[in-house]
Amino acid sequence: MHIAMIGTGYVGLVSGACFAEFGSSVTCVDMDQGKIERILQGHMPIYEPGLEDLVARGVQSGRLRFTTDIKSAVATADAVFLAVGTPSRRGDGHADLRFVEAATVDVAQALRGYTVIVTKSTVPVGTGRRVAQRIRDTNPEADFDVASNPEFLREGSAIGDFMRPDRVVIGCETPRAEAVLRELYRPLFLSETPMVITSLETAELTKYAANAFLATKITFINEVADLCEKLGANVQDVARGMGLDGRIGKKFLHAGPGYGGSCFPKDTLALARTAQDVGSPVRLVETVVQINDRRKGAMAGRIMNACGGNVRGKTIAVLGVAFKPNTDDMRDAPSLSIIPALQDAGAHVKAFDPAAMHEAGPLLPGVEWCDEPYAAAQGAHAVALITEWNEFRGLDLERMGGLMADRVFVDLRNVYRPEVVRAQGFRYESIGRP
To answer: How far apart are CA 324 and CA 386, in angstroms?
Structure first.
């Protein structure tokens, strides 16, 4: 099978490399020649464990190619995946479909023979039909079907998610399109991966509904954590007691500073706006968005309170700025709310992140970036752990405390046991634990 992957961002590059690993012939298309050259030199545009080796293997095998020539890539493709960005539209929160629309026109002009056009990006319900109409308007002679195949890739574990997915959702309307997509995913047959075949609209909504539910689960446990602090309960024990119920499950029940990243913030907002537009508002999701926004802003206050209510003239060491570990993604990261609030209150912020400092630098002016955790702690009045990278799980607390001006440790991810940190002479604060 021949695939054209339009876009070499997070979804496109990971999906293209994984399809090539499955044995398909994949051509990834991007208009940025410099970006393609850097990828071919082994410099990935995103931080994702295992991606560099996977891309190199695909290129060496000849199954994975990169080009700026969309016409040649599409002309020989059995399936064309649209994997371009769909950020929140400035002003109203709807998904911005400019990149999807531009790619659709380019693809339509290049079609030769029967082709399945697949929306891989997260797009609002109805986008697939709009894509089909735009292709018909641009190229009335085109022989094509449009399908929806939403991605369910977690940053930091995207390759495993693609290779061993919980399910594959395919929205299509003809047996011919279904056959093409089933053939592309045939390597998953041995693992008996469920294939959910639906209409276009159902597949598009499934993606939004899944992300909104997970965002709601995170927000719920964060609210419970606040309640635990008032009542003297332990949110980790509450979460375990809940998660062992098979109807609930233990994932996404970790209290913290709120969700961020490339998906949950924009997808919950887009779903809420779409629901409002059709007169069927999703009040629960609207509330989740509001609570999460407030929570990220409130985390700086927790750090200030741990420092006695005033951080003016003090140095705060921040460990982790990416929205989650194993990624350099800074989109809607809690650190983008926390660090500026600390700076506005008069604190000097030193920070370290294993992967995201290059991305974070322009977004967080005035931060003193350090090359390892202990350098950040040197002279600090408090350490705030914001992102739960593995290398922060086993810090030498005695060494760290000896470097600090004051031993205050604010653990916004509940990585440490309170008694362990306090035994090293720290004033320790966490989330939802007595």
So the answer is: 9
Contact 16, 64 (CB under 8 A): yes
- Report the relative pairing of strands 79-82 and 64-67 from DSSP bridges: unpaired
Residues 124-136 have pLDDT tens digits of 999 999 999 999 9
User: What Å distances lie between residue 35 and 12, 21, 45, 175, CA to CA?
Assistant: 13, 21, 7, 37
pLDDT score recorded for residue 234: 98
The catalytic position among 18, 263, 307, 370 is 263
Looking at the chain, the whole-number percentage of residues with pLDDT higher than 90 is 95
Edge-to-edge strand list for the sheet holding 195-198: 64-67, 25-29, 2-6, 79-82, 115-119, 144-148, 168-171, 195-198
| Structural domain 297-429, CATH architecture | 3-Layer(aba) Sandwich (3.40)
Fold of 2-198: Rossmann fold (3.40.50)
Domain ranges in the chain are 2-198, 208-290, 297-429
Best CA proximity match to 43, nearest among 32, 57, 55, 58: 55
Q: Is 199 helix (H, G, I), strand (E, B) or coil?
A: coil
Query: Residue range 62-78: average pLDDT?
Result: 96
Residue 55 scores a pLDDT above 90: yes
Tens of pLDDT, residues 88-116: 887 777 888 999 999 999 999 999 999 99
**What's the CA angle centered on 191, arms 190 and 197, to 5 degrees?**
95
The topology under which CATH files domain 208-290 is: N-(1-d-carboxylethyl)-l-norvaline Dehydrogenase; domain 2 (1.10.1040)
Is there a catalytic annotation at residue 28? no
Can you give 207-251 as a three-state secondary structure string? HHHHHHHHHHHHHHHHHHHHHHHHHCCCHHHHHHHHHCCCCCCCC
Contact 318, 350 (CB under 8 A): yes
Report residue 157 as tokens.
């574990």
Q: Residue 126's pLDDT is what?
A: 94
Residues 6+ apart with CB under 8 A from 67: 27, 28, 29, 36, 73
**Average pLDDT of every residue of the chain:** 96
Q: How many of the other CB atoms lie within 10 Å of CB of 378?
A: 15
User: Which pLDDT score, from 0 to 100, does residue 95 have?
Assistant: 84
Q: Which residue has the tokens 């609570």?
A: 291
Residue 87 has pLDDT above 90, yes or no: no
Contact call for residues 364 and 336 (beta carbons, < 8 A): yes
Give the percent of the chain with pLDDT over 70.
100
